[in-house]
Amino acid sequence: MEQQDDTITLTVHHHGSAHSLTLPASATFHDLSLAISSSASLQEIPPENQKLLVAPKLGLQKPPFDNSRPLSQLLPLDSPKLKITLLGSKPQDIKSLNDTIDNNKQRLAARRAAHREFRAPPVSRRPPAGVHTLSSPSSSAYTFGRCEPLPYLPNPERSLKFLERLRDDAGIKFAMAKHRFSVPLLTEMNPAEHTTHESRTLGLNRNKGEVIELRLRTDAYDGYRDYRTIRKTLCHELAHCVHSEHDRAFWDLTKQIEDEVEKGDWTRGGQRLTENEFYNPQDWETEGQRSDDEWVDHGGWTGGEFVLGGTATSSPSPDQGGLALSRREILARAAEDRVKRGQQRGKGPSSSGSEGQS
To answer: Over the chain (358 residues), what is each successive 10-residue block's mean pLDDT?
Structure first.
């Protein structure tokens, strides 16, 4: 800043450029504002659009500017730190900005008006095809990982369809999803390997849900047992995923699963056709006392090894309670049993409810 006896020269910074203005020695902030508005180099910014930032000490000065005291008294003109910065815009710049704002407001208003006039047609949402017992997308994980028949027995493809029918049974799927049962393998049981002089095992659950085996075939290998009988055996084996022993908690869970399978079977309306249990002839809890020596199982198995397709000559487990019979012995004994039962009941040889030949 330069000061002479009758004039002072000030430097005003605007948009990174320095502009020199010469004013009378008695000039005030008001006079400085007028000089800026008449300067072509400062783009003729009017006083009402000006703000002067003075450093140090004075800070921001706004219109109307002080016209009572000269700048020589207010500003440290001899200080090298003195800096005056002009903040302001030309009228045409402000007008252009206002025009842009107005145009944006008009477009937004037109958009809102068009949105109010538009009436979207109602969306009709149809339910997905089929019947779904559970809405949870994760319920599909609670099922059997794979179904495998015994390939060395007759018609393994028919056994596979039987196992897949059990896996896809609506009631079974409902109960398994509700209890979060996930079984890696569902397979069939070879009657010859699980038939002794004392008992016939109808199903096995190994390692609490690692493998479930079901006796699908008749002892004579000439047909398949009743589907609903096998399904109830499967309910029994699913309960062994939680309880190994045949205690009160096990039987309560078995009964609960049976009821859920019946109610969840939407293919039959979810209701019992009669008040009778669909397993015939006797209740599960007295299964060990049956006269025809059929056992659902002897509790859940743990440990040991499982080899799919074991032979009939393999060593029987301690739970089977006797030596395994050969296939010829099984066929002979099954025929004798059918004749005896038919004679005792006054009927010809026929399949019992527990065997369920088809």
So the answer is: 75 89 90 88 82 89 90 86 88 85 91 76 53 49 91 90 92 92 92 76 89 89 88 92 91 93 73 42 42 54 47 39 52 69 57 36
What's the token pair of residue 188? 């069939």
What does R_g of the chain's alpha carbons equal in angstroms?
A: 48
CA-wise closest residue to 22 among 41, 35, 40:
35
Choose, from 193, 213, 237, 260, the residue flagged as catalytic. Answer: 237
Domain boundaries along the sequence of the chain: 8-88, 144-264
DSSP state of 309: T
Report how far residue 289's alpha carbon sits from residue 282's, in angstroms, rounded to the nearest whole number: 10
pTM above 0.85, yes or no: no
Between CA 185 and CA 163 the distance in angstroms is: 10
Give yes or no: 157 in active site.
Answer: no
* Lookup: tokens for 169: 């049974």
Residue pair 210/185 in contact by the 8 Å Cβ criterion: yes
Task: Give the whole-angstrom CA distance, residue 151 versus residue 146.
Answer: 15
CATH architecture type of domain 144-264: 3-Layer(aba) Sandwich (3.40)
Q: Residue 302, CB half-sphere, CA atoms under 13 Å: how many?
A: 7
Instruction: Specify whether domain 8-88 bears CATH 3.10.20.90.
Output: yes
Contact 21, 9 (CB under 8 A): yes
For the beta carbon of residue 348, count every other beta carbon within 10 angstroms.
Answer: 9
How far is it, in rounded angstroms, from Cα 90 to Cα 99?
14
